[in-house]
## 1
Amino acid sequence: MLTPSLPDKLYPWQLAADNGRLTGDLALDKLPRLMALMNPANGVVSIDLSAGKNGQGLPFITGCLRTEVELTCQRCLGSLRWPLEVAVRLGLVRTEAEAARLPDDYEPLLASPDCAMSVADLVEDELLLALPQIPRHADQRECEAHGYGAPDPAFIAEQRRPFGLLASLLPDSKRSC
Ligand SMILES: [Zn+2]
């Protein structure tokens, strides 16, 4: 079976009107804001999104993004493989007033009817929102295997700084196009 190629641009309203799907793999190195926060990686994000209208006539884009990124553990500073599986649940709105009326289980995607949106930007926003603020190995024994002992607090603070960037890289709470 042929895998449909992922387009660069997405027309959210058109996709919803067509009950369209958006599936495929996107290389992580196409996502510069995300790459700034992680160790170099050659992975991909698997995208599986479907669009349509729900029972109330609300146009939506929902689905899942899956990838694995390599972060720096903030306890031992060792590398940390971090699987990300992000549920996407966007409701399309034209105005902020419509966004305010959106059911709580949808995030607003503010877009004009003819807007074309970068698929990479949309995917990157969702992944950034799903990243842990302070990634750490789940089991401290893994940190000890990376040489974790008594950390020098100044060193930890220095290493943490890249993650301080996360806040500045996150999308605005209201997406727009
Ligand atoms: Zn660790």
Note: Residues 55 and 103 are 12 Å apart (CA to CA).
## 2
Amino acid sequence: MDHAARRAADPVRFAHRYERREDQEVAAVIAACFAYGRVAGFTPVLERIFDAADGRGGPRRWVDGFDPETDAATLSPLVYRWNRGVDVSLLALALKDLLAGRASLEEHLPADGELSDALDALILAVREAAVRSAASLDLTATSFEQLPRGFRSFLPRPADGSATKRWWMFLRWMIRPATEGVDLGLWTSRRPSELLVPVDTHVLRLSRFLGLTTRTDGSLRTARQITASLRAIDPVDPVRFDFALAHLGISGACKGRRDDEVCPACPLHGPCAVR
Ligand code: SF4
């Protein structure tokens, strides 16, 4: 796989737009939150968000100085499916709250216990920071449930059984080393062996083809089963296969069925059950 070419068609490209670690981290959170649907659908929205951030000195400085009037007004026309500009403003203000006086969001990720529990704590921290920030956007909310639906969709919890694909992808970007030039390896308090695979439709389908899971739903239990299968292949870095699996589907190279023109040349032709 040509990782550089595929990275250009992946939301992680927005983190690689920056050189400073603090910019990469903030860009990664925002890009991961929008990484649903077609890449061609969310890419223009992310371009507009990061153009706005760059106009204020880059994502971290933009978040640190986010103004609920002027910056929120710049974002307000944004629409992507069920997300609106106000969702981005709320996310930026939550990050501003959490990053105040801190070098990294990693300081909100508990260093002990299961990584899925730590991720749950991080997501709860973002939720709570958003509630604290809501009034500055003239939103009336005393609980996460009262925040806009689009914003709430950014923050599903592992504790509710959700596979939280976008957040495991974010953690992969942060924790896996930059070996292939895709992930960033910015966070060191956790090891790659602790990661769960981010399960989207492509990864789920290919995992079923490869016998990595028998499950059919995109749940946390499925993510655990696929990761356990991958761990048998590489216990130190089980999710190193994720980018290649996902992009076999994203690129359209795998049609999701037997194709006599495509399958014989596929690198998974041997183990794939539908070849
Ligand atoms: S062998 Fe064919 S069906 Fe199986 S993963 Fe490859 S392209 Fe997809």
Note: The pocket of iron/sulfur cluster is lined by residues 206, 209, 254, 258, 262-263, 266, 268-269, 272, 274-275 (CB under 6 Å).
## 3
Amino acid sequence: MTIPPGDDRANANTNVSDKTVYKLADKPWFAPTAPFIRSPLHTNDVAVIGGGIAGTSCCHALNQQGIGTTLFERHARLANEASGNPIGMLEPYITADNSLAGRFYEAGFRHSSALVREKLNGGAAIEAAFCGVLSLPATPRDDTRQHAILEKQSATAPDDNNAVGVQYLSVADASDVLGMPVPVGGLFYRDAGWVNPPSVCNVLAEKSVRQTRQKITQIMSHPTGGVQLRGHDGAVLGDFAAVIIAGAMETAAFAQTSWMQDYLVALRGQISCFSKDILDDLKVNCVLSHKGYLTPERNGQHVFGATFDRHASHTDVFDSDHAANIAQLGLALPELAQRLSPAHLTGRAGLRTTTPDHLPLIGPAPDYQAYLEAYPDLDKGRHYARYCRAPYHKNMYVCTGFGARGMIGAPLAAELIASHITGQSHPLANPVQEAVHPARYIVRAIKRGLIAPREITP
Ligand SMILES: Cc1cc2nc3c(=O)[nH]c(=O)nc-3n(C[C@H](O)[C@H](O)[C@H](O)COP(=O)(O)OP(=O)(O)OC[C@H]3O[C@@H](n4cnc5c(N)ncnc54)[C@H](O)[C@@H]3O)c2cc1C
């Protein structure tokens, strides 16, 4: 809906479920949703679809606010897909230019590390080690980038809680810290390390009602304002006040979210693992991050990898990918790589859910068709026009697209979704929040004239 400038309705601030209109300057297409209202009409609070790090983080964030969750996972156990690797790095992602992706993931790293430490201190059964991450440049461009990051971090006051602990190590110091010779110096993130993602997922979901072996096939609006879910056997699985879809690539498998298929891209990855017994003189003191990574021993195994393959959507383990991982390891640690062969290795493959702008999709689920109808002329540059508030699927949220950084992105994302649902203040600055908003792709496509008018239904 477009209304003329000067219309006082633009200043109204009523419940978002009505036809309230806002100034374009307020970016109504990213407007917040109405807060969660607990109602006796709904037998349950919030349903969460997907038992990986995204879904379990959402359960945890809501449970912390006193909101009950029911977690639906199609496999027999949680963390059985991308979040099922034995080790995931907790490595900060910092960009020298303060990009939105850098701001999101830097804050996400701090949040994930604090959460894991808090759980460990509380005695939770999380496997993790804050042994530090040694990040070595693989190219001259990486080297320049590392120096710029260092400069940026040094400009932060030492007592600033937002500072990520990092220092530059010479070749000799880096070799000492890792426990074997490395070819170049690089950055050492002393507060970083690794986690076992399934243990994190299980702890984050411990207060949630779990329904495993339950594939959700349909989400229906309920006349009471909530949502109902249908399982794979056709049964309706209860009334919920809201639903969060955290199903990685499958987030786009529902009628309301199918438009997201154009913006979610699967990126296959395989890790390789070897037993410490085959190289019993090896000592890896911290995580090594280069073009790939190598982790310290966990349960007698070292993990390294990983491959990136855009053209495969299966999760079989291949010797050719083990060979690629060995070759990649050889760029940083040639002597170690020479001692490994695919015959020594076991592995695991998974799909990373990525997006074209490398940022996740976190927030209310936009009603695609209604967006096209509400904002048909954004491409005309009418800056002062006024538009109606964002048309979302009521009480439906999405949380996906973490690519290779789910462990440092999903827990913070869950806080953002919880703040949407509870109406409390958001944990992210507006520009970052808008950068991860699921509707950004629809808005961009309209502005760039990429969505043809014929797609707009009358
Ligand atoms: C090889 C590899 C190495 C990686 N290394 C790291 C790393 O070191 N550090 C890091 O931070 N990240 C790493 N990642 C990325 C990280 O694993 C992912 O970003 C993260 O696991 C994504 O979590 P998710 O919950 O979105 O997806 P998933 O873990 O895939 O979870 C989605 C869940 O939803 C369930 N589901 C989907 N549809 C339905 C449905 N209809 N009904 C019920 N259940 C459903 C699925 O069964 C699945 O369990 C790596 C990824 C790969 C592949």
Note: Residues 1-24 have pLDDT under 50 and may be disordered.
## 4
Amino acid sequence: MRKVFAGIDFGGTRIKIALIFENEILVDKNIEAASELTFEERLADIVLEIRELLHGTDFNLAGIGFAFPGIVNFQTNVILSKYVKYPGAEEIDLNAWATANFGVPLVIENDARAALIGEWKHGAGVGCTDLVLVTLGTGVGTGVLVNGAPLRGKNFIAGNLGGHTTINSEGNICNCGNIGCVESESSTWVLTEIARKSPDFSRSKLSQVEMIDFKSLFQLSETGDALAIELKNRCLKVWALCVINLVHAYDPQKVIFGGGIMKSSHIILPYIQGMIDKHAWINSTDVELTEAFQLENAGILGVYELFKQKYK
Ligand SMILES: [Zn+2]
């Protein structure tokens, strides 16, 4: 029997399940995140999906890895923070779940840190010792590699909270409790609020969208919509300041960008590069800004690598 690993990436809208054999993803499947279900019910579905992917093959499951959107204790496999999309996840004994259903060990890592490790071993960061990964999407996720090791810290938050660093001391209270976070200063909720107060609002096509998202912002700004351009520039500035903070804190060889908005990387990356040249302590030639190579699979490849490391 050949030994195969199951990686599960818990996204905001979908859960990706993949089987990996000797560094290659053999097969994968997406299911809906379905936040109306409890995490326990979601796990029951995942058991069925893994069994179905294994059915009829000569593969035997060797282990399971979770890339989870929250703070997790990598040592004990306990989820430490609540996440609205997966209610009750922090109450479940995941080790017991993996043993009871498959008789295998488990690893769990924060999704951005897992993606960082995936990119380090299989993507844009191969051969590097110092990396920062930033995922730009509904939220801003970050992960950090320093001197060839993923940064975790005492409470497992190190490197993960780039999106919750304060960039506006006069800003709103973020849903995390902190003030003027990168994430709250560029959230679609804040953008919608700013847009509605703008005198240009009624003339802007943004008045026809119910909730402003980055996709509509970038699309409408291409058409010359003044308010869309203004809000897009606000987001770019917030993200660039976030990256400058991360570069100053961790001095990486590369900053790797992922997330749904990377279709506009031709606008985002040159802008951030320009801001680094203008405002950072180093030049943009001292740090490479690059798109992730494994946009879809970095998290799963990351937990696969962590599993090999933890249970070798
Ligand atoms: Zn925050």
Note: The chain has a mean pLDDT of 94.
